[in-house]
Every structure is written in C-alpha cells, then in structure tokens.
Amino acid sequence: MIAAISGRALAAAARRAGYRPLVADFFCDTDTVALAERATMLPGDLQGSINGERIVETLRQLAGDDRPVAIVLGSGFERMTETVDEVARHFPLAGNSGAAIRRIKDPQLLAADCAEIGIPHPEFRWSRPPDPENWVVKTAGGAGGAHIRRAAGETPILQCQVPGGRYFQRFVAGRSISALFVGDGQSADIVGFSQQWASPAPAAPYRYGGAVRLRRFDRKQAAMIRGWLSGLTRRAGLVGLCSADLIRGPDGYKLIEINPRPGATLDIFDDAD
C-alpha cells in the first residue's frame, strides 16, 4: 500500500518488484491508476495538507479484504509525524517512524548531529541574521524546495521544535547533488548520486525541477558521504529509502538536509541494474 501526495513513482517501482500496489494520492492520474491494483484519492489538498483525521479510514477502505504486506509513505508526511505513528498502528510500516522523522527533520538537532559527527553543514539559526542577503528561510519538515525563500525581506516568527516552523540557513552556492540511500537503523548504503536543478516560480525560487543520474562519482567522495549518512542514520534510526541533499562548492561538499522517505529521484535509479 502506498500513500503520498503523488504515488505514481512508488507504484511503478512496486509493479517492477512484483507487487500489486494499492495507491492513495492527491491525483489518481491515468498513469497511476493504470499501475495500481486499486487507487483512491488521499483526503486533503495541495493548498492545505493531508487530512490526518480521515487517512486511516481511507486506507482501510482501499485495503478492503486484502492484507497489505506493508505501507510506504511518500511525500506529504514530513510534518505529520503523529499521523505516521497512527497509520503504523493499523498497517505494517515500511519506512521511518514518526520519531525518526521528527529527529532528522528538526533543523537544530540536525545541525548539532552534523557538528558532532564532523559533517560540513550550513550555519543555522532561529533568529533573523544581521546579513539576511546571505541566508535562506526554510520550513522545518518542508519538501520539494517550494518552501525555500531568500531571507532578505523575510521576518518569520520562529520557535524551536514548532511543527512547520520557519528557520534560517546560510546560503551555499554550488551544484545541487542528491544521494539516494538505504538505511537499516545503523548504517547507510548509497544507491546512487544525481544532480538536481530548480524550476523557479515567482514565489518559489528553489522549487524542485528535476534530476539526472550521475553515472560516475569519485569513490573517495562517495565513501566520505556514505560515512556521513551512516552517522546520521545511527543518530536518527533511519530505515528504508531516504535521500540526502548536498551542495558541492569550491571548498567541497556540505550536507543540506535529509529526506526520510523515497526521494524524487527514485525514477532514475529504479531500473534493472
């Protein structure tokens, strides 16, 4: 069973792996319906969010008399960790618990973990910096890049550990690199690397646009990044498919954030090899 804002890529991966996917998402587009054994609309909307009060009943109706081997939660649940835990009480969860998501998506804890492990990570702060032109403002638990703004002119009200709270992160110039990886709670294995690009909109200058697979990647750098991700996997207890956003600048790589779910680059890695 799959629940996500868009379930098409996960449904395609499930079919290729020999499963019969049951899909709940916001679109129920023709491609997803063709891939799914059954599909239904996920309660909620893009302007708001997934309706946590109705999701369990929606999934029960989708399952019907079948007993799904597991449920995979895709995009849309990063700021709904209590809903993740509620879903897990009714269906076997293949992926990260609410506690793991809360830990890795808390910008203050991530910054502290990176400092202790020795992972280069942009400076973070809750309060407005004196040089906002060198910073971006992000939403804790946000995904897809649409929530990121340049900090100049922004005066968000921020509180530590408030779901959906906004925070400042120092801007890092360079190439946007993503690492798709699998965690087992103790270590991480990298599936592959990709380069990403933005599809800017007037109100969303860093909105995700797409990615291309990097067939070649320096082995020493790959081993270094794997070590970083293994350290964070142990700290947060990450399991299943996740992705890491990094920036490669003149002074090397910086880890920007972790997405504790199958990433947008799943399509370009889910093939025969």
Characterization of the model:
The strands form three sheets. The chain has a five-stranded antiparallel beta sheet. It folds into three domains: about 1-95, Rossmann fold, CATH 3.40.50; about 100-120 and about 170-270, D-amino Acid Aminotransferase, Chain A, domain 1, CATH 3.30.470.20; about 125-170, no CATH class. The protein has helices spanning about 10-15, 30-35, 55-65, 80-90, 100-105, 105-115, 220-235, 265-270; strands at about 1-5, 20-25, 40, 70-75, 125, 135-140, 150, 165-170, 175-185, 190-200, 210-215, 240-250, 250-260. Helix 2 (about 30-35) links the parallel strand 2 (about 20-25) and strand 3. With about 270 residues, it is of the alpha+beta class.
Could you state the order of secondary-structure elements as H and E? EHEHEHEHHHEEEEEEEHEEH
Biggest β-sheet description: 5 strands, antiparallel
Number of helices: 8
Helix and strand content put the structural class at: alpha+beta
Q: Radius of gyration in whole Å, from Cα?
A: 18 Å
Unreliable stretches (pLDDT < 50, length at least 5) are 158-163
Key traits:
Rossmann fold; alpha+beta; single chain; 8 helices; 4-stranded parallel sheet; 27% helix; 27% strand; D-amino Acid Aminotransferase, Chain A, domain 1; 273 residues
Which secondary structure elements does this structure contain, and how are they paired or packed?
Elements: E1 2-3, H1 8-16, E2 22-25, H2 30-35, E3 38-41, H3 55-63, E4 72-73, H4 81-88, H5 98-105, H6 107-117, E5 124-125, E6 135-139, E7 149-150, E8 166-170, E9 175-184, E10 188-198, E11 208-214, H7 219-236, E12 239-249, E13 252-259, H8 266-269
Helix pairs in contact: 4-5, 6-7
